[in-house]
Amino acid sequence: MVLVDSVTRAGESVIARRRSVEPVVGASALPTAPAATPAERAAARSRAGTTRLAKFHVPEILFGPGSLPEAAHAAVRLGARRPLLVTDPGLCAAGWPTQLGAHLAEAGLRPTVWSGVTPNPKDHEIAAGHVAYREHGCDVIVALGGGSVIDAAKGIALLAGNGGTILDYEGVDRMALPIPPLVMVPSTSGTGADVSQFCIVTDTARNTKITILGRAMVPDVSVVDPSLLTTMPDWLNAATGLDALTHGIEAYVSRAHNPLTDHHALQAIALVGEHLVRTMDHPAEEGARTCMAQAALEAGLAFTNAILGAAHAMSHQVGGLLDLPHGVINGVLLPHVIRFNAEPDPHRFVPIAQALGLPGQIVPDSTAGAAEAAEWAAAEVRRLGDELGVPKGLGEIGVTEADVPVLSAMTLADACLSTNPREADQADIETLFRAAL
Ligand SMILES: NC(=O)c1ccc[n+]([C@@H]2O[C@H](COP(=O)([O-])OP(=O)(O)OC[C@H]3O[C@@H](n4cnc5c(N)ncnc54)[C@H](O)[C@@H]3O)[C@@H](O)[C@H]2O)c1
Ligand SMILES: [Fe+2]
User: Fold this and answer.
1) Which of these three, 182, 213, 231, is where a domain ends?
2) Where is average pLDDT lowest: 18-22, 220-224, 248-252, 386-390?
3) 120 lines ligand 1 (CB under 6 A)
4) Dihedrals φ, ψ of 125, to 5°?
5) Which atom of ligand 1 lies nearest, measured to the CA of 120?
6) CB of 315 sitting under 6 A from ligand 1
7) Which pLDDT tens digit goes with each residue over 298-322?
8) Are residues 129 and 241 in the same domain?
9) Could you read off the pLDDT of 178-220 as tens digits, one per residue?
10) d(CA 189, ligand 1 centre) in Å
11) Residues 155 and 263 in one domain
12) Do both 430 and 336 map to the same domain?
């Protein structure tokens, strides 16, 4: 299987060129290699002279095969009478919105289906969705789809509550007024948009993606029914699965990580390592699909609270240059970024390697052992990419040596770099891009 050959649309370039991130108080106060017990960790924090404040936001989550009808009950609980069901043509062809529409009707609601979203949702699509919301007197928004549909639904809610155009809200916490309740039903196992505080929209005038960030963007309810994943095409499954893996790894080593995000990050990494390939080989198998749905969910919980790192900062620039899926670009970049980040201090990569199945002969109880474990993790991510058909290097997908200086300069301006565990300057990023060519 050659993944990129089967791809016909732009990949996400999520969080691209964001100007600022929500601050996490005391994010740099934790030791890089956490002490063994909670008491020791508390003592370490106390020695450092700071008390870390961990913030963790999360929607209500309903999870499990067959949970789709719960979206209707959730809408009722949120006061819906006339929900707007946001979705897209691909999902309509797969039949899921028809099923959800029936559940909404059975619950006594009068839904309006609006399916005007395309991948990488556009500013004018959000405006059109808002018109539909107003014209039909809607009160709650229910989204069924991948990250594109979910972000479009968030954007429509933002306009319904605050007016103006979606581009007015680029940045952090720019919305002043409450928005209609949001019920999300994700149909891909990757983005985590159903639990995140991010909303990524294409600015069609500037031909770039903007990021809207804020607590108000965290949905009220996420209904994760893994059955929906069975109709994903293989390329989408592989790309979104690699995106979830990258979310988990970058969130775990992020400068803004905290004990609440660590757990979810490691769990996501382990689940992708164990189940992504199986979903490719056995697409109808419920167990593996359920594990990948959980992986995407937990990676989302980790990254929306801990933010990301250099792989995403670099990937966004490549995604802006080329029309390729974000998860595939991540898959190429991630092993190189792991090596770069582990070089000065490999210890935090040991739990990552263990989550991916570090073999017993590597004993990470010394710095040299930890470095060996980190190198094994980098190689394991590459091995997984090979199995999924990820290109060997960025050169294979169209990046040239001549692109490297510009891509590197733009990477430095990407907010995801600010939470990367190792400082990186222009020369470092250029070296990383060249290694990944
Ligand atoms: N808000 C966030 O936190 C966040 C995080 C990551 C990515 N994103 C955004 O998510 C978008 C990418 O989302 P995505 O990768 O989930 O894909 P997508 O929503 O763009 O969907 C891609 C295509 O797959 C089809 N599809 C989706 N699920 C399907 C299913 N179950 N069966 C059949 N077809 C299906 C859709 O119809 C669509 O044509 C990007 O715009 C990206 O910027 C947002
Ligand atoms: Fe991502």
Assistant:
1) 231
2) 18-22
3) yes
4) -70, -40
5) 41
6) no
7) 999 999 999 999 999 898 888 777 7
8) no
9) 999 999 999 999 999 999 998 988 888 877 777 788 889 999 9
10) 9
11) no
12) yes
